[in-house]
């Protein structure tokens, strides 16, 4: 087999270069002379993650499709720590990406099964308040393109970035309690009634009907007996308000300033 390089990384002070080869070896090179210094043995499949420590020039992290995560001392050619990403009942999970924290005390990895792995010093108690499964309810909604080739959400016909902040759900689409919904940017200060999603029945691609989050219904609407406001209705209302504000601003600009401070009058 002809060797091929799959990944290259410089260490923190640029004295060394580490290459990952498709024969599962990591090679450490002197960056000035090009001399091969070490062969790092441990991986059993191809490696696509090489991450240098943010300030310790000796440390390099590697991870690959074999589920192995190694921390190496590249000056000595030795592994200092090893973790194998075994998932109960499913075998190992390939590691797709890893990043150090700025202070170098932690690193996080993502794998092929959608897990976020966090390693570091200290207590894991701050992470225990987070549910095991966290998805946005809009994560797997289909997209379409309009006549201008812009991407739109298929259900609401709106650009995804203009839609309201999504709800947090588990892998089956069941919404999490309101205390978790406030973790979503844009929902931090929402009232409780705005953190209660509306559930509806949606047909999946294989014909199965499942209950999923489709929008939001407030307590006020329940009391008034109004129709449930699903997500596309909210979007249309927000768009209408924005159009009205834009029209009022344009009218005010054409009429000139309305007071001594030069502030245009709003409709």
Automatic annotation (TrEMBL):
Keywords: Repeat, WD repeat. WD repeats lie at residues 1-39, 40-82. Signal peptide: none annotated. SMART domains: WD40. GO terms for cellular component: nucleus. Residues 240-261 have a biased composition (Polar residues). Residues 240-267 are annotated as: Disordered. The keyword RNA-binding does not apply. GO terms for biological process: cytoskeleton organization; regulation of cell shape; regulation of transcription by RNA polymerase II. This is BRWD1 protein. It comes from Herpetotheres cachinnans (Laughing falcon).
């Amino acid at each position: 087999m002809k060797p091929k390089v799959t990944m290259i990384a410089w260490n923190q002070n640029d004295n060394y270069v580490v290459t990952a080869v498709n024969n599962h070896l990591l090679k450490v090179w002197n960056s000035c002379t090009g001399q091969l210094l070490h062969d790092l043995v441990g991986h059993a499949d191809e490696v696509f993650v090489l991450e240098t420590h943010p300030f310790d020039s000796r440390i390099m992290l590697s991870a690959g499709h074999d589920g192995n995560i190694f921390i190496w001392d590249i000056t000595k050619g030795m592994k200092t720590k090893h973790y194998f990403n075994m998932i109960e009942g499913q075998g190992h999970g390939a590691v797709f990406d890893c990043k150090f924290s700025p202070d170098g005390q932690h690193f996080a990895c993502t794998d092929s099964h959608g897990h976020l792995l966090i390693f570091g010093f200290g207590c894991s108690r701050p992470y225990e308040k987070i549910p095991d499964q966290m998805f946005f309810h809009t994560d797997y909604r289909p997209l379409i393109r309009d006549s201008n080739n812009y991407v739109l959400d298929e259900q609401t016909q709106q650009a995804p970035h203009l839609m309201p902040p999504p709800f947090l759900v588990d892998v089956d689409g069941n919404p999490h309690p309101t205390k978790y919904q406030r973790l979503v940017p844009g929902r931090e200060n929402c009232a409780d009634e705005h953190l209660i999603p509306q559930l509806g029945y949606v047909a999946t691609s294989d014909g199965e009907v499942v209950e999923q989050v489709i929008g939001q219904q407030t307590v006020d609407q329940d009391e008034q007996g109004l129709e449930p406001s699903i997500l596309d209705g909210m979007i249309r209302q927000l768009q209408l308000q924005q159009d009205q504000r834009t029209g009022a601003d344009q009218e005010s600009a054409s009429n000139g300033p309305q007071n001594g401070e030069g502030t245009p009058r709003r409709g």
